[in-house]
Amino acid sequence: MNGPLIVVGAGQAGALLAIYLARQGYQVTVYDSRPDLRRTDIGAGRSINLALATRGIVPLIDVGLIGQIDDITIPMRGRMVHERDSLTPVLQPYGSRSHEVIHSISRTDLNAVLLDAAEETGRVRIEFQAELESVDFDNSVLRFADRRVEPFGVVFGADGAGSRVRSSIAARGACQFETDWLDHGYKELTLPPECDGSHRLDPNALHIWPRGEFMLIALANPTGDFTVTLFAPTATFEALVSVDTVLDFFASEFGDFADMVPNLAEQFMAHPMGPLGTMRANGWSYGDRAVLVGDAAHAIVPFHGQGMNLAMESVRVLDRHLRESPRDIAGAFRRYECERKPDADAIAEMALDNYDEMRAGVIDPDHVARRSLALELERRHPNHLSPRYNMVMFTTMPYAEALDRATRQAAVISAAMRDPEIDIDALVAALPQLPALDPLADPNALSIS
Ligand SMILES: Cc1cc2nc3c(=O)[nH]c(=O)nc-3n(C[C@H](O)[C@H](O)[C@H](O)COP(=O)(O)OP(=O)(O)OC[C@H]3O[C@@H](n4cnc5c(N)ncnc54)[C@H](O)[C@@H]3O)c2cc1C
Fold this sequence. Notes:
Elements: E1 5-8, H1 12-23, E2 28-31, E3 49-52, H2 54-62, H3 66-70, E4 73-76, E5 78-81, E6 90-93, E7 102-106, H4 107-120, E8 124-127, E9 132-136, E10 141-144, E11 149-151, E12 154-157, H5 164-171, E13 176-191, E14 206-210, E15 215-220, E16 226-233, H6 234-239, H7 243-253, H8 255-258, H9 264-270, E17 274-282, E18 285-286, E19 290-292, E20 298-299, H10 307-324, H11 329-359, H12 365-380, H13 388-394, H14 399-418, H15 424-429
Parallel strand pairs: 1-2, 1-12, 2-8, 5-14, 12-19
Antiparallel strand pairs: 3-7, 4-7, 5-6, 9-10, 10-11, 13-16, 13-17, 14-15, 15-16, 17-20, 18-19
Helix pairs in contact: 1-4, 1-10, 2-10, 7-9, 10-11, 11-14
The structure holds flavin-adenine dinucleotide.
Flavin-adenine dinucleotide binds at residues 8-14, 31-34, 47, 50-51, 131-132, 158-160, 164, 186, 229, 274, 294-295, 302, 305-309, 311.
C-alpha cells in the first residue's frame, strides 16, 4: 500500500484494524471525531455494555489481548426471563457446553484496551476530535470539518453507520447503500447496585422482560450495576412524556424492575431515544484507495448482540485478504467484500428475526418446545445439529452457512413437531456434518466463573 495509511474511526473496528495493520508492519494514523474516551466520559445514547461472543473473541486471541479482556467481562450463561405475572424469573441456558456463554463487556473498557494496544505497537498514531468531512480522491487528501486537509494513500472507513468515507465512495458511483429504519427505538437506563455494591439480579445471565410489542433487557457491569435497555415502538416512547405516564408504564409492565430504581422517571426523561436500523451497502471499496469496515460496511439491529462481533470478525477477514494479496490491494478489497457480504446480509436478517424471539418467542410455548427439542437433538447428534443461536454466537462458521443450516434444521424440527412417530434421528443424521471450530476459538479463552 502506498502513501499514508489512514483509519477513520477509533471504535472497535477502527482500533482493532489499526493493530492488525501495525502487525503487518504499516505505519497508521487513526482519526476520530470524538474526544479520547480513555480521558473523557462517553456521551449518553451509545450502548454502555455489549455482549461479546466467539466471533469477537477470536480476533482478540489473534492479537494477544484476550488476557486483558478477561478481567473486564462477566459471563452470561443464558436468558433469565421475567414474565409479567411470575415472581421467580426462569433461566433458559444458551447451551449445554461450558463455553456456550456470552460475555458482558463495557464498550469503553474494550475500546480503551484496543486503543492502548494500538499505540503500544509504536506504529499507530491516534488523533481525536478530528471529524472527517469527505475524502477527496482526485487530490488524495482527507478534508476535515475544521477545514484541515491531510494527505492519504489508502483510507479505511471504520467511521460507523453514518460513515462519511462511505458517502465519499458513493459519490464516485462505487457504492450504493440504504438504511431500513425500524419503527422501534431504544433507551438505556441504569439499575443501581445494592447498598453493599453487589448486583441486584444474577449477573451471570442476560435478563429479559418480554412483553410482546416491546421488551426490557439488562446486562451486568463489573461495577455492580446493570445497563438496562427498553426496546419499544417509537409510538410507545412518544406516549411516555410525563413522570406519571413513565411511572405508570413501568409499574404495570415491569413492576419488579421499577421497584428497584428510585430515580426511574428522572433517568427516563433525561436519556435520549436511539433509532434502530439496518444499513446494507454494495461496493465496500474504491479501487486500492478506500475500503469500509465495521458498521460503515454493514450496520445491523442489536437484537442478536452481533454488530460488534461481526465488525471484529470482518476486520480479521480483511487482514487475511491483505496478507494474501499484498501486491493486489484492489483485488484484496474486492475479495474481502465478496466473502463477507453474504455473511453480513445473513446476520442482518437473523438479527431482525431475533427481536421477535426475544420480545415474544421466549415465552411462546411452541417456541420453547422447539428450542428444547433442538437442544435435545443437538445432544444426540452433536456433529450434525446445533441451534441457530449457538451457531451464530459460539462458532465462526460463516453466518450465511449458519442461516442455511438453521433453515434446514427448522424443517426437521417442524416435521418432528407435526409427527411424533417420524424417524427424526435419521432426518438429523442426513444433515451435513458441522464444521470444526476455528482453532483460535478456544472455549476456555475467557474464564467462566
Ligand atoms: C443499543 C445497542 C446495543 C448493542 N449491543 C451489541 C452487543 O451486545 N453486541 C454486539 O456485538 N454489538 C452490539 N451493538 C452493535 C455495536 O455497537 C456496533 O456494531 C459496533 O460498535 C460497531 O463498531 P464500529 O467500530 O464499526 O463503529 P462505531 O463503534 O460506531 O465506531 C465508529 C467510530 O467512528 C467515529 N466517527 C464517526 N464519524 C466520524 C467522522 N466523520 N470522522 C471521524 N470519526 C468519525 C466515531 O466517533 C466512532 O468512534 C449494539 C448497538 C446498539 C445501538
